Amino acid sequence: MMDCNDSHALLSGEHLIYAITIPLSTSIILANLVIILGIAWNRQLHNTTNYFFLSLLVADLCTGVALPFIPLMGLNRELSFSSCLVAHVFPNFLFLAFLFNLVMVHYERYVCIVDPLHYNNLWMHRSFPLALLVVWAPPLLYASLPAFGWNNWTGADWSGCCASSQNLTSLSNCSATKTTCCSYRRVFHNAFIYLEVYGLVLPAILTIAGMTGHVLWITRGQLKDICRLHRSVERGSQASDREQRLNLRYTRCLVAVSLTFLACWVPYLIYMHVCIAFLISDTKWSSTTHIVLSCTGIGSMAVVPLVLGLANRQYTEPACKLLQKLRDRWRRRMQGSEEVAV
To answer: Which SUPFAM superfamilies does this chain map to (predicted)?
Structure first.
């Protein structure tokens, strides 16, 4: 971590954060808007299942907006007490809301596969507003705990710019604004960070991984049953072309899920445990390392809903049709201009 008085390091760190996060944040926002508009335009997708996914997309969109501000938590900046709380509490709330929505979407689809007969009788379907309250209210309450006093803030912490003032006028102005050296160590208590990481984030990720693994295991069993029935009907001992295609499709699905987990979740898990390791050891580490790890970890995790959405043709069909219309108009204009030129 850097000192508040090191303005050159602060500026270089901010420039690096914006250089990494702005393109990634723009891509996440645009991709979410495409999928959201696809769900809004297709009336066949107006059901509870897609409403849960729409809530996840909104949370992911907000995470994309807040993405440039999350790595800034690792930099020590001169901010007032209220501005420092907002700069740390609000992005943390959006991240936790995104994670809660992601767990809810996976759970809803998991029950649909594991217990399809009781799927429509789920409490989430009977009381959709309550389900939305569950995925948005607890993250807001937990993220707001530092604003209610669970922080490392003391009365002597706002001495950042006041200590460097040389005259009475600048000293009085600084005292009026009460600018402080804002850092995540003063906003978040160590117990708060441990509880969030090992009580909320890590169990949520393991729950998602467990549900995904169980679904793949069930799918594998169903595939074996289908192949067994197919052989009994065909009265053959060797695998037919249809069985081979089914096995190949399952293999592709397994590879896609594994690669998605490795590309989207592993970078964030590495970033999370590296941060905890440095927090426990209480050692200073390079701001560049923190910036790269945080941008890569948070950005890769925010891509998960986009993978789920872009893989469904129903969500992307309106955007594809719009692009096709624009392409056809462009071709007609080009052909017309060529005919006029001839």
So the answer is: Family A G protein-coupled receptor-like
Cα pseudo-dihedral 55, 56, 58, 61, rounded to 10: 180
- 8/44 Cα distance (integer angstroms): 54
- 315 CB neighbour count, 10 Å cutoff: 22
User: Does this model's pTM top 0.90?
Assistant: no
What's residue 62's pLDDT?
Answer: 92
pLDDT on residue 56: 92
- pLDDT tier for residue 119 given thresholds of 50, 70 and 90: confident
- Which own/partner contact pairs does 147-150 have at CB distance under 8 Å and 24+ positions apart? 147/85, 147/89, 150/189, 150/192
Position 161 scores a pLDDT of 44
Query: How far apart, in Å, do the first and last CA atoms of the chain sit?
Result: 67
Residue 48 near residue 124, CB atoms below 8 Å? yes
**Cα-based distances in Å from 200 to 8, 206, 307:** 36, 10, 23
What HEC string does the chain produce? CCCCCCHHHHHHHHHHHHHHHHHHHHHHHHHHHHHHHHHHHCHHHCCHHHHHHHHHHHHHHHHHHHHHHCHHHHCCEEECHHHHHHHHHHHHHHHHHHHHHHHHHHHHHHHHHHCHHHHHHCHHHHCHHHHHHHHHHHHHHHHCHHHHCCCCCCHHHCCCCCCCCCCHHHHHHHHHHCCEEECHHHHCCHHHHHHHHHHHHHHHHHHHHHHHHHHHHHHHHHHHHHHHHHHHHHCCCCCCHHHHHHHHHHHHHHHHHHHHHHHHCHHHHHHHHHHHHHHHHCCCCCHHHHHHHHHHHHHHHHCHHHHHHHCCHHHHHHHHHHHHHHHHHHHHHHHHHHHHHC
Q: 76-110 burial, b if ≥16 CB within 10 A, otherwise e?
A: bbbbebeebbebbbbbbbbbbbbbbbbbbbbbbbb
Q: What is the pLDDT of residues 44-90, one digit of tens each?
A: 888 888 899 999 999 999 999 988 888 887 777 788 888 888 888 99
